[in-house]
Amino acid sequence: MGSHAHRRYGIAVVVAILVVMAGCSGPFQSSDASTNDPTETTESTVTTTAATEAGDADDASATNETGSAITGRMLLLLDGSDTHVDPWTSNRADGVWMNDTETHRWHVENDSTTLAAALGGLGVEATAESLAYDGETYNESTNGTTVAYRVDGTVVKDPSEYQLEDGDEVHVLVHTANVSVPGREYSSSHPHAHGTLEASIEGEEVNFSKERYVMNDDYFHFHGDEDGSRWHAHSTNLTVRYAISSFDEFDVTNGSITVNETTYDADQTTFRVNGESVDPERYVLKDGDQLELVVDESG
User: Fold this and answer.
1) In the chain, is it the N or the C terminus that has fewer CB atoms within a 10 Å radius of its CB?
2) Dihedral (C-alpha) 31, 37, 43, 45: value to the nearest 10 degrees?
3) Is residue 277 part of a domain?
4) Residues 121, 259: contact at Cβ < 8 Å?
C-alpha cells in the first residue's frame, strides 16, 4: 500500500506541475504579444510625426520644447543668397536664437522685442536703409542695392519700429546689381514669396485661374486650388520680367512686351508693384507684392 500510495502521489505531483506550466504558457504568450503592440504603435507614431513635419514646416510643436515666448520663420536673403544663421552662434544670452533642427525658425524669449533687436541678437545689424552681417555691409545708397523687410507679406520700412509677434514669417532681403535670375529653386516647405497679379491687355482682364497659368513654371506659378488669387515664387531671385515671361503668351524685353505675337513698346506698357511703376528687368519680387501689368496700344 505504501508503494502504491507513493506512486499515486508522484503521479499527482507530475500532473500538477504540467497543469501549472500549461496555465503559465498563456500569460507568457500574451505578454509577448502585448510587448509587440507598443513597438508597432511607436513606429506608426514616428512615421506620422515625420510626415507631419515634412508636410507642414509651420508646425510649432517643436517650439514648445525651447521655452521661447514667441517663434516664427525667417528668410534671410543676402545678395540673393539664402543665408542661415548658425544656431549655436546666435545669442541665446540675449534671448534670441535660431532653432537647431528647423533651419528657418527663430525664437525670442521676450514678446516685446522689435525686429531690429531680434536681428541684432542674431548678429544682423538692420536699419531702414542698410544691413550688415558677417563683415559685409549693404546700403541702399549704393546703386543697384535694395534692402527690404517683410513680415507676413507686409512692408516694414523700419525694423526698429516693428514689434515681433508669435507666428510671424519674416523676410529680410538684400539684392544688389549682381543678382542672378532666377536663382536657387525653393521647395514648397521653404519660406518663399507670395503675392497677387492683375493684368489688363487692351482693356481685357487676364484670368489667371485658367489651366494654362497653373503650375506653368517651376519658379513662378499659380496653384490650381487657389483660383488665381495669388502667385508663388519658389526662387531666391525672380524679377518682374521673369515672372510675366514665364507664361507662354507673354515675353518681356527691355520694358516692352509681346502678347500672342503682338508687340507693345515701353510707352504702351506699364509695370507696377504696390502701386508704383518699376523696371521689370531690375525689380525682384518680394513677399506680399501686388503686381500689376497694363498694356494699352494708345499709351
Assistant:
1) N
2) -130
3) yes
4) no
CA 206 to chain centroid, in Å, comes to: 28
Domain annotation covers residue 184: no
Residue numbers of the domain that contains 39: 1-55
| Within-domain flag for 47 | yes
Check residue 86 and give its pLDDT.
81
CA pair distance 174, 150, nearest whole angstrom = 12
Grid coordinates in use for 25?
504558457
Cell numbers that stand for 89 in this block: 552662434
- Indicate the pairing of strand 130-133 with strand 124-126: antiparallel
Q: DSSP string covering 83-119, please?
A: ----TTTS-GGGTEEE-SSSTTEEEES-TT-BHHHHH
Q: In 84-107, which positions are buried (b, 16+ CB within 10 angstroms) versus exposed (e)? A: ebebeebeeebbbbbbeebbbbbb
Give yes or no for residue 57 having a pLDDT over 50. Answer: no
- Residue 283 is given by DSSP the state P
16 Cα distance to chain centroid = 69
CB 170 within 8 A of CB 151: yes
For residue 105, what pLDDT is reported? 96
Domain CATH number, residue 104: 2.170.130.30
